[in-house]
Design a protein that fits this description.
Layout: H1 10-16, H2 57-69, E1 74-78, H3 81-89, E2 97-101, H4 106-116, E3 122-126, E4 142-148, H5 160-169, E5 173-177, H6 182-185, E6 195-199, E7 213-217, H7 220-233, H8 239-249, H9 252-271, E8 276-280, H10 290-296, E9 303-308, H11 313-320, E10 327-328, E11 338-340, H12 352-357, E12 365-368, H13 374-385
Parallel strand pairs: 2-3, 2-4, 4-5, 5-6, 10-11
Antiparallel strand pairs: 1-7, 6-7, 8-9, 9-12, 11-12
Helix pairs in contact: 1-2, 2-8, 3-4, 9-13
Length: 387
């Protein structure tokens, strides 16, 4: 019997939404349908499955699960977060314009400027701390507003509801990269967004063992357009990756609670350390748009960035190479804690002047605070700061 998700709370949806016992064996876990093609009863009689690039039952179960978490009608899973973003921009045409933030993830910035600008799409990189700044760049060619919140790596908060009001006023699509918050902390569709993107690799997967992206929407026409691109261009994930993400999502609520509590402890420790200059974490009352974060997020997350006094590159390198529990690596959102140097890692593709204007200076370090013991993480940072 199908499980109704209508009245489920988040934790229950994470475990049950989209997943039914296998009808053949009763297996409680969705099987991994490791097949490239499906036998049809007769030509055109394929029960929805014909060729696995288009659809796979394991992926379908995952898409239903993520849709439930984002309160969406539709979800499409992609082979990476960049594959998902690529599909969104492919809905545009030469001459169209996009308004987006001036402190984007470096990979998004690189795709926009190095790939799609060459096809005649224009991008405006704007300070979105005040949503009204969007109005200065909207014109008859604007088709998309693309927002990250919290932003990567400066943890800036963008008012989703305010952006949605502007988008609706001008009949423009609003897309929100919800990777840093996860659906546990924030649901942009409920705040008026048209589209939500996740790098599923991060908190949804949660175990640093899969690469995947997702797009969620309640707009039937937008979903149909994206589904055509999804199938036609082929950036689709395999069944094993889909299974791994479903397994990861079952503990999303538990992991996020610990990410948030550990993040709070680490942020307060860094704020009080004499070698640390600035700490960027939305939970501080003085953090820009903290009140908006309180309104649109359930908690403040486990992502933190900070700078060192003196702003010396060699000091940042020494610290990042001295941690023992915080592993020096790109990515985020896994159960293990990571430390990264955005200027030379995740944001190396952004020109120095532009990244420094956004706050990505030489001593900026970004932490993905994992779910280890809180005191062990603080002790690790303490010894690294004193190295």
């Amino acid at each position: 019997m199908a499980k109704s998700i209508e009245n489920m709370k988040f934790a229950t949806k994470a475990i049950h939404a989209g997943q039914e016992p296998d009808p053949t064996t009763g297996a409680i876990m969705t099987p991994i349908y490791q097949t490239s093609t499906f036998v049809q009863a007769s030509p055109g009689n394929n029960k929805g499955y014909a060729y696995a690039r288009g659809k796979n039952p394991t992926r379908t179960a995952l898409e239903k699960n993520i849709a439930a978490l984002e309160n969406a009608k539709h979800t499409l899973c992609f082979s990476s977060g960049m594959g998902a973003i690529d599909a969104v921009i492919k809905t545009l045409r030469p001459g169209d314009e996009v308004v987006t933030g001036d402190d984007l993830y470096g990979g998004t910035y690189r795709m926009y400027t190095k790939v799609f600008e060459g096809f005649g799409i224009r991008f405006h990189f704007v300070n979105l701390s005040d949503a009204n700044n969007i109005r200065k760049y909207i014109n008859e060619k604007t088709r998309l507003i693309w927002v990250e919140t919290p932003t990567n790596p400066m943890m800036n908060i963008v008012d989703i509801a305010a952006c949605a009001a502007i988008a609706k006023e001008h009949k423009v699509t609003l897309a929100v990269d919800n990777t840093f918050a996860s659906p546990y902390l924030q649901n942009p569709l409920d705040l008026g967004a048209d589209l939500v993107m996740h790098s599923v690799t991060k908190y949804l997967g949660g175990h640093s063992d899969v690469i995947m992206g997702a797009l969620c929407t309640n707009d039937d026409a937008l979903h149909e357009k994206l589904a055509f691109i999804h199938n036609s261009c082929g950036a689709t994930p395999g069944p094993m990756d889909s299974f791994l993400v479903m397994r990861g999502i079952k503990t999303l609520h538990l992991r996020m609670e610990r990410h948030c509590s550990n993040g709070k402890a680490v942020a307060h420790f860094l704020k009080g350390h004499p070698r640390v200059d600035k700490v960027y974490w939305p939970g501080f009352p003085e953090h820009p748009n903290h009140d908006i974060a309180k309104k649109q997020m359930k908690d403040f997350g486990g992502m933190i960035s900070f700078t060192l006094k003196g702003n010396k590159l060699e000091d940042a390198f020494r610290l990042a190479s001295s941690t023992k529990l915080f592993s020096l690596a790109e990515s985020l959102g896994g159960v293990e804690s990571l430390i990264g140097h955005p200027a030379t890692m995740t944001h190396a593709s952004i020109p120095k002047a532009e990244r420094e204007h956004a706050g990505v200076v030489d001593s900026l370090l970004r932490l993905s605070v994992g779910v280890e013991d809180e005191q062990d993480l603080i002790d690790d940072l303490k010894q690294a700061l004193n190295a």
